[in-house]
Design a protein that fits this description.
The protein has 329 residues and is of the alpha/beta class. It folds into 2 domains: 139 residues, Rossmann fold (3-Layer(aba) Sandwich); 169 residues, 2-Layer Sandwich (Dihydrodipicolinate Reductase, domain 2). 35% of the residues lie in helices and 27% in strands. Strands 8-9-10-7-11-12-13-14 form an 8-stranded mixed beta sheet. The chain is globular.
């Protein structure tokens, strides 16, 4: 059993990770650190988990085998370096950092310490994403030509108040959920992005970060894609890939809250095949996969070396939005 400590315990940990650890077979939540001491005491009492007085104490504890970092984006670099300094394997929330040089610094530190660093791209462990990737690899739709990933949600009611603070957040929805979409399309296609062009706009609520955006992506294979995002709508997520002989589509492909249908379409002939799957265990599967990886039992699907590629695409997306020109990652 791998014993985890959460560094930066907050809304995400309460909403998703407590239940994820409960559903994991080989991963246990053994402690956490939270900046707000009063809230930390309340969380410790509610969940029956040890609250550590400092981040350093958590990372240094012999009762903690691995550190899961869920702090705001701007804190990831220092938090990762602290955990690595204590020789603890690190699973860090996405995006890994504010900019690419920070990720490169993390990777150098991990290599120097001889410690594994992974990214919490939990959607690589969603059954919907796995199935779409497998159908593409099996040639069910021929050569992929178009890909589209979309996430919509109402960010005006988010309890994560820091998400609109550019000193803490890498950006708006591009950095928050767009990074999941970028990673998902790269993963299902087994391909990498060669160019990014971005349009994005903010509003009075989002302040200095974007509220909605559209990214155009060019892939090395010749496929092209789009990632569309808004924090001013009702929840929706979609993943769709069009190939030379068919289409794979899944409405709400990136949700864990209910079952979804993955459909294989053949033009005018309609649905040729569909499978109903659940992503409810995605977080738990990711935790157990990371535990297995640090024990040398199996590769982890989202190592930080791959997270570096996502960060470069993210940087290119924001550079494009500011400049008005397409950018190569």
């Amino acid at each position: 059993m791998t014993r985890y400590g959460i560094l930066g315990f907050g809304h995400h940990a309460r909403k998703r990770l407590i239940s994820a650890f409960e559903g994991a077979a080989h991963s246990q939540l053994a402690g956490f650190w939270r900046h707000n001491e009063q809230k930390a005491a309340a969380d410790a009492a509610e969940f029956g988990i040890a609250a550590y007085p400092t981040a350093d104490a958590l990372c240094a504890s012999p009762e903690i085998d691995a550190v899961f970092i869920t702090s705001p984006d701007a804190m990831h670099l220092n938090d990762v370096l602290l955990a690595l300094h204590h020789g603890k394997p690190v699973l860090c929330e996405k995006p890994l950092a504010m900019r690419t040089p920070e990720v490169e610094q993390m990777l150098a530190a991990a290599q120097s310490a001889g410690v594994f660093l992974g990214v919490a791209q939990n959607m690589r462990y969603y059954q919907s994403v796995e199935l779409i990737r497998r159908w593409i690899a099996e040639g069910r739709i021929g050569a992929p030509q178009l890909v589209h990933a979309q996430v919509c949600h109402d960010g005006t009611r988010s309890p994560r108040t820091w998400i609109c603070d550019p000193s803490l957040a890498c950006g708006g929805p591009i950095g928050d959920v767009g990074i999941h979409c970028i990673d998902a399309v790269r993963y299902v296609l087994g391909d990498d992005v060669s160019q990014v062009a971005t349009l994005g706009h903010g509003d009075a609520i989002s302040g200095q970060v974007e509220a909605h955006a559209a990214l155009s992506l060019a892939f090395h294979s010749g496929a092209v894609g789009a990632v569309t995002l808004t924090t001013r709508g009702r929840y929706r997520s979609r993943l769709e890939v069009t190939g030379t002989t068919g289409v794979i589509a899944c409405e709400n492909a990136l949700t864990v809250d209910h079952d979804v249908e993955v459909q294989l379409l053949r033009g005018w002939d309609g649905v040729e095949q569909q499978e109903r799957v659940s992503n409810a265990d995605g977080y738990s599967r990711m935790l157990d996969a990371f535990s297995a990886a640090i024990q040398g039992k199996e590769p982890f699907r989202a190592p930080a070396t791959d997270g570096l590629l996502n960060q470069r695409i993210l940087d290119a997306a924001y550079d494009s939005m500011r400049s008005g020109h397409a950018v190569r990652p």
